[in-house]
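Table S2 (continued). Query chain:
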Amino acid sequence: MRFKLLILIVLVSVPVFGQTNIDQKIDSLINSNIIEYAFPGAQIYVKIKDEIVINKSYGYQTYDSINLINNDHLYDLASLTKVLASTLSIMKLYEDFDLNLNIPVSYYFRDLKKSNKKNTTIFEGLSHTSGWVPYISHQNYVKRKNGKFKKSIIRKDKNKRFSTAINKELYLNKNYFNKIFKRIKKSKINKKGEYAYSGLFFFYVPKLIEKISGFTFEKYFKISLLDKTNSKLYFNPKEKVKKEIIVPTEYDSIFRKILVHGNVHDEAASFMGGISGNAGLFGSAQEIGKLLQALEPNNSIFQDSTIKKFTSYAYKDSPIRRGLGFDKPYSKNEYGIYPNENLSKLSFGHTGFTGTMFWRDPEKQLTIVFLTNRVYPTRNNDKFYQNNVRSKLIDLIIQKTTQN
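Corresponding output:
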């Protein structure tokens, strides 16, 4: 394995005619992290002004060095789903249906009216200031004490009752999603008005979109955004593309006991059939780059005022680091500026647990997409964070902007 990886580094690191010193440094950064097992492969897409200056793939899908990463290969985007699918769709609702962001979520979901979440607004859900708890580990409720799945919830054979595919070997009771919403409804509220990242609001986004638009979440996202930007991103991709172009995510040794490949990595999203507002989207860096054109000024999809509203800090002159759905730069005190000190305060983006990121800086007219499967073969690998790969990559890319 090490020998094959060494060959890869030698091949990809040979200077290419026309390649700048910065390009070579980017290659070196990515390839050195591959050889250190921070991730087996990666994609980088960079657009400066109107020019795509990098659209490149590195390494392999896994460490066995069999399937070389290509630009059309699909990664599990994890929490990028919260922005690319959920937030962008809500932005369309905001424009097309005059959606009031200050209305309580319970206006659309009457069962929340009798809960501690009855006054939570869409604005608070998007800005992560609702006080809702960060996450619920729903997978912990489907097993018995002996570690076996409860037969009333999960079966190994698909039938009419157990039809929600978690993967090719596990099928969930088709009505179990009701349990998920009941747990969210009953979960506690922490201090409202303070920043605390929570994915729970995003479970309601697909149903919210359907209630307002009349289309399913997946359909509305496709016709309102994907088709208009000619970009190809997918929920449940193995039903739509060849499995060979889908990058394996992780060997799940805790819950599914199988390689997660083509099914969503996030356990809770898998219980929603792979179509959720918090996770589930798959795509390549170049296709995300196409979609992000919708956030450039003077585009045909969003008004500039809508982009500014959602991508600005939700609370002006506040330590709260979020826009509406989007993440923003913030100070990490002794750890520096997140995600990089050289990005402007106008910049915005998001990161994903599986090792994904996009960031756009309107001031620099810069768009960055960086995808990896850093959780392969296990999420316990912290080399990706130890090596501070994202920030180092941004440093080099910003140096490249001065050349253009």
